[in-house]
Write a structure and sequence with these properties.
By secondary structure, the chain is mainly beta. The chain has a single domain (about 5-125), classed as Deoxyuridine triphosphatase (dUTPase) (Deoxyuridine 5'-Triphosphate Nucleotidohydrolase, Chain A), CATH 2.70.40. The protein has one helix at about 70-80, and strands at about 10-15, 35, 40-45, 50-60, 65-70, 80, 85-90, 95-105, 110, 115-125. It has a four-stranded antiparallel sheet with strand order 1-4-8-6. Strands 2-10-5-7 form a four-stranded antiparallel sheet, with no helix packed on it. It is globular and about 55 Å long. The protein starts with 10 loop residues before the first strand and ends in a 35-residue tail after the last strand.
C-alpha cells in the first residue's frame, strides 16, 4: 500500500447518550459503505418520512463527502428507503448526522435503537468553477432529456 492508497481518517464524536451504540462499520472486507445505526426507537407508518438521529457527528476531510444511502435489504423487504439519496454530509458540517427515512411499504415499520438503517459511503468531491458561455458544444444526445438515452428517434417522433 502506497501513501496515496492509505485510507483517510474520519473523526467521529458520539452524541451524549449514544455511547452504547455500535460505530459505523464495514460489514465485509469488500463493502463500499459502513452501516449506520438508529439512535432512537421510532414507528414509521406507511407513507411517513422521519428524521432519525444516529448518535454521532463527524468531521469529513476537505475534498471528501459522506454519502448516506439506503440499505437494499430494508428497501426490498419493507419498502424503507432514504428520501434524499444520496444524502450528503459536507466536509464543513459538524452537527449530528441524521437520516431521512421513508416508509414506502404497506405496513408500519418499527425502527429499533441500534438497527442498521443506512450506509455511509465516503467519496472524493471536486468543487467546480462556473464559466458562462454563449453556446455549448454539440453532442449526439443534444437536449434529449429523461428517458432519452437508448431511444432511437425516428422521423416524426417527438423528443
Amino acid at each position: 500500500m502506497t501513501m496515496s492508497d492509505a485510507p483517510i481518517t474520519i473523526l467521529l464524536k458520539r452524541e451524549s447518550g449514544s455511547e452504547d451504540l455500535e460505530l459505523p462499520a464495514y460489514q465485509t472486507a469488500g463493502a463500499s459503505g459502513m452501516d449506520v445505526r438508529a439512535a432512537e426507537d421510532r414507528m414509521l407508518q406507511p407513507g411517513e418520512t422521519a428524521l432519525i438521529p444516529t448518535g454521532f457527528s463527524i468531521a469529513v476531510p476537505l475534498g471528501y463527502e459522506a454519502q448516506m444511502r439506503p440499505r437494499s435489504g430494508l428497501a426490498i423487504k419493507h419498502g424503507i428507503t432514504l428520501l434524499n439519496t444520496p444524502g450528503t454530509i459536507d466536509a464543513d458540517y459538524r452537527g449530528e448526522v441524521k437520516i431521512i427515512l421513508s416508509n414506502f411499504g404497506q405496513a408500519p415499520f418499527y425502527v429499533h435503537r441500534g438497527d442498521r438503517i443506512a450506509q455511509m459511503v465516503i467519496a472524493r468531491v471536486e468543487q467546480a468553477q462556473i464559466e458562462v458561455v454563449a453556446d455549448l458544444d454539440e453532442t449526439s444526445r443534444g437536449a434529449g432529456g429523461f428517458g432519452h438515452t437508448g431511444h432511437k428517434v425516428e422521423a416524426g417522433d417527438s423528443p
